[in-house]
Request: fold
Amino acid sequence: MDRRTLLKTGAALAATTALGAPLVARAQAKTITFGGSIPMTGKAAETGLNVLRGYEAAVKYVNEEMGGVEIGGETSMLELSLFDDASDPSRAATLIQRQVDEGVGFFLGSFGSSIVLPTCSITEAAGRLMVQAGGGSDQIFTQGRKRVFGIFPRASRQFVSSVDMLKGLSPEVATVSVIYTNDPFSKFQADGAKKELEARGVEVLDFIDLPAEVSDVTNVLTTIRQSNPDVLICTTHDQTSILIARQMVSTDTNVKMLYQTLGPQTEAYGKALGKYASAAVTQAYWDASAPYEGDYFGSAQKFADYYSANFERPMAYHMASGASCIVTYLEAAKQAGTLELNAVRDALAAIDFECFYGRIKFTEDGDGDPSLLGPMLMQRQGESMAIISPQDAATAEAIYPAPAWSERG
Reply:
């Protein structure tokens, strides 16, 4: 899709041309418009397209399977009005400002904190709303914003369950090294990981800062070989995670566990690394086997079944988190009994309900409640992804220690 092309799906758009009041507030239109941008091209497109498919799945289901949504006694259909921001924060900001000027009131987030940060600043200043599953930087939630909500916990609160898993391995993990990219999300996540690890008695041997854009990590991997940690933790985005894993293979840098918070969950990771992708550990905020259910889609498995029947792109948890943004908007509007923005904002702030994605509840700062919406740990085992933590949701035992690269068949 050309990055300048406006993506529109859902109900007919004849009622969206008058721009006097926010589009979402025009009950007579009987259409709820969700605006925003998403990386359909560029470096963040691999995951951006996953989030987009989740948005599309929710709109398709509500329109076609539910016949719309009833709010305040009136049934409305849904539509998406999303631009390709090409993974470019400046472009995204321009597009979002244009939609604010056109009267859009409900926004969905892009993917990546570097894009969500400037765009949520625009929507906040304009009195609009954003529910998003693409930005976890602490900066999004610690600067006094009251109209931005994140499905994920903020970055510094995302590692509690990971330390639980590491401490439960046998032999127990004693040492780790951490590599992170210096971007608004990864640095906060790495800081939170270091704090949690050290508080639980795990020694952090290395804490290595990479540039936001990096093309070679061989010098860093020399340090890792010398330190020889039990676990290498990478709080890096998809393509950087692939780069690190590839160069670990080529330099024969072996650790007992490679844990990358983003990357191993994607189809691209498996294609890029082949047999070497096996045993990589990652975070996942949802899985079809999770015991969640609610009014939209039904259970977690039914969401997965519906998605797979209607979309070709392979399932990842970002599809579910994207769909949950729209479901959360709708549940808040139903509880408010209106599409008026301030009323929906207040309902979002107080929301506490269960759906196919889990129990949705936000902190007073707008990020996902870490005790309810924190990550599970997934591991690539052969051609599939297995839940290895928490124990009560696990579908397989962790492969630990992982075989050396030279021993993988």
Confidence is low (pLDDT under 50) at residues 1-5, 10-21, 24-29. The domain at 6-152+288-373 is CATH 3.40.50.2300 (Rossmann fold). The two ends are 38 Å apart (CA to CA). The chain has two domains: 6-152+288-373, 157-284+376-407.
